[in-house]
Structure formats: C-alpha cells, structure tokens
Amino acid sequence: MILEITTTHTPATDLGYLLHKHPDKVQSVELAAGKAHIFYPEATAARCTACLMLDINPVDLVRVRKGTYALQDQYVNDRPYTSNSFLSSAISKAFGSALNGRCNHRPGLPQTPMPFTLRLSSLRVDAELEAVERLFVPLDYELEVETIPLDTAFPTWGLSKYINLTLHKTCTLQELLSHVYVLIPVLDNSRHSYVSQYDIEILMQKGQGWLEQHPERDWITRRFLRNLRTYANEAILRLAGEEALPKDESMSPFQESLHQQRLRRAFERLKESGTASVLDLGCGSGKLLKLLLKEGQFRRIAGMDVSFSELQLAKEHLHLDEASPALRERLSLFQGTVTYLDERLKGYDAVAMVEVIEHLDEERLPAMERVVFGYAAPDTVVLSTPNAEYNVIYEKLDPEGFRHEDHRFEWTRQEFNAWCQHVCRSFGYEVTTELVGPEESAVGAPSQLAVFKKMKLA
C-alpha cells in the first residue's frame, strides 16, 4: 500500500521540513507487522512528492508472539496490499510531527496552508461508493475516484470494493493528515488492533476542529470505534459538547473520586500485607501499577490485561519507553486472561483484581477461581466488585440493569460474601470484606472489597 503527497507550494521542498524527512534520503520505520519506507520521487522548488510505502509481512499478521496477539486470523487476506488502519498507524509513526502540527526547524511552517494532492491506492470502501463523497466533500476536497474491477479478465463480474482515491485541497499538512488518519479506517470499516478508551482520546485529538461539525459525525465516530456502543456513545456526546456518562458508575456524581478510592484502598491493603511482588490482573491503563511503582516495598510488579490496546495505553501512561533500566526490570506487562492457566501468573506474593470479575460470564467464574486461587495461589488476593444494592442511588440507571453494559453480573453484599466464603472453603483461604465509597444505611456503598489470605498449614 502506498500514500503519495504532492505540493506545488513555493518552495515545494518545504514539504521535507514538514514531514521531518530529508528528500535526498530513503528512510524506514518499524511497524507492528513490517516496515514503512519514506522516499521522494521528485523534489524541486516547483513540485515535491513524498511517498509512504508499507511493506507488511502477511505471516507476521497471523503469528502470535509471546505477550501479543495475532493481527489477523487468516494467512490469505488483503491487509498487506490495501490502504487500511496499518496506513493510519504508519502515518502516526512516520509523520508524527506533521500530524501533530510541529516543525522544530521551521515552527511557523505547520500553520501555512499549501496546495496538496494526496493519492491513496487500493482503498477498501466497505459501504456505498457515495460514502467517499459524503466524507470528503464537506471538508472541501476535490475528489478523483478510480474504481477497480474484480477481475479485468472478467468485466461482467463487476466492481470490487477497492478504489484509487485522489484528494485535492489547499490546507495545512496537519489538517490533511488528520482527515486521512481518521477516515481511512472509517471507509475500510476495520481495524488491525483492539479498540479501547484510548481510541476515544485519539479521535478527539485528530478530529478537533472539523469532526464536531461534520454532517457524518456520528457515522464516522461509530465506525472509527468499531461500532462499540459504549465508546461510540461517549465520543458522540463529547463531540456534541455534552457530558459523557461515567464509564463504570452510570450517572454517578463522584465517579472519579470513587475510582480513586478503590485504587487507593487496594494499594493500602497490598502494602499492609507486606508483600514484595504484585500481579495486577485486568490492569487496564495502569493506574494501580502507577501507585505500586511509587512504593519501594513492591520490588517486582506486573500487569496483565486481555486487551492489547489497554496494555499499550499503560505503557504510555507509565512512560516505559523513557524509563530507566531499573524500572523496566521491576515492571512487566503482558497480555492474557484470568480464565486460562498461564505460568506467567505464578510466583507473585499478591494478586490484585480491581473491578474485574463482573466483566466475566458467571459460568466462567469457576475457571477464574481455579486459575487465581488454585494455580497461581498467591498469599494475598485483593479483589473489588460493584455492590448491586447501591444501584438504586443512581437515578437514571435501570433498577434491573447494570452500571456498565460490559458487566455480566453485579452482586449484592450477601451474594459477594457467599462467594468469598465458597472460595475460602475451596482453596484454603480466609477473607475479610469491606465497603468502598460513600455509604447509605440501607444499601451500603458503591463498591465492595475482599482481602483473601492464604491459610498456613500447621
């Protein structure tokens, strides 16, 4: 797949400054499943063209490495050869400064509108062809759309879903790249990576200044976020300038403080246990890990999550790329699930599971119990989950519903205590439970937390 950007700005070679790539050199960057090469077929004062060509390895797309997941599940697929989300990732990796409107050598240049022509080859359109116009015409682009037949030898077979697209516009390079970055995966209706909360922030950033007013705003948002309703609804509300529903405590006025209370309480109980090594199961973006790293008592820390995107977000939040060797040695992140035996889960003094179990189907709980309490068998397990009785406090929450659409169940205090006692009997633990958050006399508090301690043999 290849992207071409041409300008006739004077001097046209300013494009090299904007892209932070010298026209006289061929440069490459590593991608998740291959490389991206940047080169200039022409670079004169009158006309300059930069090309971003991706070399995706089809085998790498289906190969599962330790701690990662397969980007595709079939060896035969169109991903190495079509303009798709890999190209968006490559734009961010290769042209990150331009995408963010920065130019160290010429600070004022990114704000300069220039005449651009951008060409995308083999762009998959998983929609009616008119969708291309609906997306780009409101952004003041002139379009050239070249349809591609299924097979030139058999014209009666009709057209494929692929097009060659040429865009013309006078604008800043940041504006051009932001539009393409967002709209390529929207037209393709596919992503090579998991979608997470982080992608909402990416959409807010790349869509700032144009997506809010776009007539296809909601359609763009849903497809960019792979039609995941919770994420899409939150993003649409934010784009409309409205308050988004809290993620896990629907309509709660103290959601942020409650989340911090849960993390702080889990941290305190882990510290009190005297443990030196902690595994955070379902670590998400790494908020508990950040607290643990600040405490020298915890000499070995790990985070596991089922979502690769969440792990990437944790890596960024914890600044692991810039971290010292000592910190990187102290902390590890890996992908996995709490319902499968995994030797990486063994050898930790303590395990934390903060608001995790309610995301499992109830029939999968016995598998989780065997993995955490039977197989990993740490000395301490700190676990929290919502208190279903408290849901009546949330005025706009369906009394029969859950706080989050991804919750598979929510327990009352009695149900939680009964489950805790079952775990203790089955795996040789003792437990203490407590409430977290503001308490109401009749219904308790929003969250409930249990600290399991492994019973020592006499």
UniProtKB/TrEMBL annotation:
MF GO annotations: metal ion binding; RNA binding; small RNA 2'-O-methyltransferase activity
Cofactor(s) this protein requires: Mg(2+)
Coiled-coil regions listed in the entry: none
Keyword Metal-binding on entry: yes
Domain Hen1 N-terminal: 1-239
GO biological-process terms attached to the record: regulatory ncRNA-mediated gene silencing; RNA methylation
Record field: transmembrane: none
UniProt EC number: 2.1.1.386
Reaction catalyzed: small RNA 3'-end nucleotide + S-adenosyl-L-methionine = small RNA 3'-end 2'-O-methylnucleotide + S-adenosyl-L-homocysteine + H(+)
Keywords from the named record: Magnesium, Metal-binding, Methyltransferase, RNA-binding, RNA-mediated gene silencing, S-adenosyl-L-methionine, Transferase
Keyword Cell division in annotation: no
Family membership noted in the UniProt record: Belongs to the methyltransferase superfamily. HEN1 family.
NCBIfam families (UniProt xref): bacter_Hen1
Protein name: Small RNA 2'-O-methyltransferase
Species this chain originates from: Pontibacter mangrovi
